[in-house]
Amino acid sequence: MESSYLLTAILVMVAVNYLTRALPFLFYRGGSLPAPVRFLERYFPPVIMTILIFYSLKDTDFQSAPYGAAELSGVALTVALHLLLNNYLLSIFGATLFYMGWVQGWFA
Amino acid sequence: MKYHEEIKTAFRNSIPVMMGYLVLGFAFGLLMASNHHAWYWTAIMSLFIYAGALQFAAVGFFSAKLGLIDIAIASFFINVRQSFYGLSLLRRFADTGWLKPYLIHALTDETYALLTGIKTDEALSQKHYALFLSAFNQSYWVIGSISGALFGAAVQFDTRGVAFSLTALFTVLAIEQYKIARRITPFVIGAVASVIALMLLGSSMLLGAILLSLVILFGLRSQIEDRVGTGENHGE
Fold first, then answer.
1. Residue A72 sits at the chain B interface (C-beta within 8 Å)
2. Is B158 helix (H, G, I), strand (E, B) or coil?
3. Nearest CA in chain B to A71
4. Range of the domain at A11
5. Are B105 and A21 in contact (CB under 8 A)?
6. Spatial separation of the C-alpha atoms in residues A35 and A40, rounded to whole Å
7. Do A20 and B27 touch (CB under 8 A)?
8. Is A52 close to B57, i.e. CB distance below 8 A?
9. What average pLDDT does this structure show over B169-197?
10. Lower CB density within 10 Å: C or N end of chain A?
11. Is A108 a member of any domain?
12. Burial class (CB in 10 A: 0-12, 13-18, 19+), B143
């Protein structure tokens, strides 16, 4: 991968990410927020997290066998672990190990 | 030592974040290494971006060679939630002087939670406490991710499937969002927008999904807000 692409891509993310953290300090002057902004504040975070789940699975082939079975099982295991144990490190690492085991054929 | 008490309190309060940032940072470094990115890219990202979900998503941007405009817009929407953190810290950061740019830079989900969630002794210099707390947290993230990058580059092992940590992270974050929002509609909107964008745009679905979800979200705004009920006041 060429360094110039990586560098500019990272610079863009540095700038935009800093902007999201600095926005209120730049523009907010007290008082209550406009209603559409409060609506976004409340309901957009779950929307974007759902989109990111799909984005991370965008190259999975759900049309032909095994129909993303490893990915779907991995997500199901993440949810189950997280609801049962409520420890995000265990949920993430348990599910990732399980998925790695599946695609590398440890269980075959 | 100057600020001894501030450093001690900041360190003690940062311990819960330590484990999480070290381990999650390690996973990020490992993921970068498995994509054959040199360790210093990991270091640069963790120092200067310092945002978990975005850095994990960035690994996908790089392998897709996503355009810069797409990266800018996606980054904004992935992290726009952070824009709301500053609102409750305006007064607190008001007299922090030259520390302020760093305190804003280091305002992650976890640091925000600690700053607003834990009351500290009023005798402490609040701005230095905030500085040390922020710096401790970021140091865990930086140390964890560089370790992961170096480990991944030095130790040869089969990394197929490591990228699933991305999906697992987003899944966990979504569950945590559900605990706050307690509503299923935003998740359905995200899923519908994603599936449509995947069918139309394939692998370059991210931006389309974000824009489509915003259209649907605001299209259904009156229904969504109606069903929340009248008893809820979401003002300041």
1. no
2. coil
3. B164
4. 3-103
5. yes
6. 9
7. no
8. yes
9. 92
10. C
11. no
12. middle
